[in-house]
Design brief:
CATH topology: Arc Repressor Mutant, subunit A
Strand order of the largest sheet: 1-2
Helix content: 40-55%
Number of domains: 1
CATH class: Mainly Alpha
Structural class: mainly alpha
Largest sheet: 2 strands, antiparallel
CATH architecture: Orthogonal Bundle
Distance between the termini: 55 Å
Strand content: 5-15%
Order of helices and strands: HHHEEHHH
Shape: globular
């Protein structure tokens, strides 16, 4: 797998993880980020926002293996985190709009050495399905209606 080069989905998952974790909101030190990281449902939600699609289990699993193997991210106890090397890649990428962030990161990754040895991280079908269900539940819950009397607007 190491000699195949970086895939677009690798960049998609990486950017989704960075943005879901809040690192993309403004420049701040890695030590001030929430230490717990983000859950898979948050990564899927951000990926859907970026590409209007929910990444499949195999896409997530392959991307995480390759990104973790390159020491750009890590996953522990279901929490996804961007490493200092991943933070550096994100902060030093060429600037562009959010719409082009995945393409920009893919180009940056492609200029790096091949991903190398992927980790043996595994995403089970039931874990992916549960994260998709959690994300879907968030997006289908209607906002509560307000009475015109109580509407502050």
């Amino acid at each position: 797998m190491g000699d195949e080069g970086w895939r677009w989905a690798d960049a998609w998952i990486f950017v989704s993880l960075v943005i879901a974790g809040g690192a993309g909101r403004h420049r701040r030190s890695a030590t001030t980020r929430r230490p717990e990281g983000v859950r898979l449902a948050d990564v899927l939600s951000t990926a859907d926002h970026l590409n209007h699609a929910i990444p499949g289990r195999h896409e997530v699993e392959a991307a995480v293996r390759r990104l973790a193997g390159a020491e750009l991210i890590n996953v522990a106890d279901g929490w996804f985190r961007v490493t200092p090397a991943g933070e550096h890649l994100w902060r030093t990428r060429p600037r562009g709009g959010l719409a082009s962030a995945v393409e920009t990161v893919h180009a940056v990754l492609s200029r790096r050495a091949a991903p190398g040895e992927a980790t043996d991280w595994e995403l089970h079908e039931d874990e992916h399905a549960a994260a998709v269900l959690e994300f879907s539940a968030r997006t289908t819950i209607p906002h509560p209606r307000r009475s015109p009397e109580n509407d502050p607007g």
